[in-house]
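Re: that chain you flagged

S.,

Sorry for the slow reply, it's been a week of failed gels. I finally had a moment to sit down with the sequence you sent. For the record, here it is as I used it:
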Amino acid sequence: MKKTNNTILAIDPGLREFGFAVLSGKNLIDAGARSLKLVPREKREASLRALVGSWIEIHKPSVIVLEATHSHPIPWLHDVHRMTRRIERMARYRNLSVARYAPQAVRKDLLGNGWATKKEAAAAIVSRYPRLRVYLTQDQKWKERLWLNMFDAIALALHHQRTR
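Prediction finished late last night. Pasting the structure tokens below so you have them in one place:
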């Protein structure tokens, strides 16, 4: 009997920072956040695609979960949507399933409140994975914003697990 792969790669997309998480069963295999602020704007998408490609090769997920984005008339917001669509195409090219969820749906599922803050969602995740407590409180706003992207990615992965 062939064992099914239940590894999830979740990505909270962004042009300045983005979060990622790899979940296999109840185990959080890997999670983090990356800043793209120092990468020239025209190279950010390629940098993100390279990172996603390496995570796919390393972790061999069966599904990629993304925060839902939408086409937008404001160029930088549309860039986030375009980047998300490229990650989707990359996943489908590798025969991986893709799931997209709105942030409000994820927070409603995990916290019972779709309008909960990112910090409230992060606190709920820390109660499940106590080793992440160190990322919850930061001494500078930019660090807090960076790590909240990681918590959003973990929330996406947990939501996907619960809704399958």
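What I noticed first: The first strand starts at residue 7 and ends at 12.

Talk soon,
D.
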